[in-house]
Amino acid sequence: MGSGGALMATMPASSTSPSTQPPQTSLSLLLADDCTAGVWLRQQGGSTSGRYMQVACFQGHTDSVMRAAWSSDGRMVATGSSNGVVCLWQPVEAALTARRNLGHAGVRQLGALEGHPEEVYACLFLPPTSSSSDGGSASSSGGATPQRLVTASGESLFLWDVATQRQLQQVAPAPPPQAAAGEEYQVPERWRAGYLFGLAVQPDGPLLGAACSDGRLRLWSRDGGDASLSPLCTLPWNQAMGADCCFGLGGLFCAVSKDGSVVMMDVRQGACLQHLKLETPLLSCTLLPDGSGGQCLAAAGADGGVHFVDVTSGKVASLFPEEGPERPLLCATLSADGSTLAASGEAVVLGEHDLPAGETQEAAAAPGHQRAPKWSPIHVWQRALQR
């Protein structure tokens, strides 16, 4: 997927606790290629352009941080890196109300998950499931469902028990379907291994899905109260590298690719709802309610815009940042309540023309004055309330 960029992951809004976080704030993660993951706190009274302040920085990785995920309760973060290590950590309570950057002192590392064969291109916490008939979802003490983490590296998924930090399973995808007579698959040879990108979990069902480097879509099922994962099928889709995917309600499954292709399907019926192609590579996607009971796909594009595709009609509308130069957007994510959309862009090396007005190059190089060598734009949009 490339390096030199930044990805943003927004903490689920439903996990906000008045006892640990002031009202009208939100936390986000910003991943960089300097082996760190920053915790950014949205300030009270912040505008829709996103007044964010960094309050903590996780520095436990030794290689570029590729992916991040918040746990459903907002208390833990998983970050995956290029050297195949996933770190578990949490912001300390002081960072949630800080008025300055606490740096590494603002986080606490909980552990490291090793054993991935290559880069970690996806990680997510599985949402709790209801009790299964075999009792697999209950803990040994009769309490809540054990917390599970799923990571993706190479062609395989890895299932982890978060409490014990033990790997429960490594599961390969289902084999690809046989090509029809005379059909030749045109994905470049270097991507035919089917690396798993853009892992997603179904919010109202048992499925996991991935958009893959060989242009195919792969599905797995969550079994026995998340005691294991089972490969279901591999679906032909595209002849370009898949970039990301997401599930919606009612069996909706969507994916985007680096050639601009978009597919929307109903996994309950195996039916394709929309298949279209935009004029720009698409690198990330998320689903949001359209305000009238339907759903809309928001995809981050290499042209610097967020492109909205109506699930029913397939009509496309685009939104571009109002300020700053055009930079490819690598990630778009939605808050749990659907009110805020955040996107982060490709990092750029700062030059003299990027200095704030009135600041000279000599002043910027003065002792004790440190400027970040790179800048990663973060864009935040809030949905206008219907009156």
Automatic annotation (TrEMBL):
This protein's record includes keyword DNA-binding: yes
GO molecular function list: DNA binding
Keyword entries, A-Z: DNA-binding, WD repeat
UniProt cross-references to Gene3D superfamilies, sorted A to Z: YVTN repeat-like/Quinoprotein amine dehydrogenase
Each WD repeat, start to end: 58-90
Pfam families named among the record's database cross-references: WD40 (PF00400)
Biased composition, class Low complexity, residue ranges: 8-25
Protein name: DNA-binding isoform A
Organism encoding this protein: Micractinium conductrix
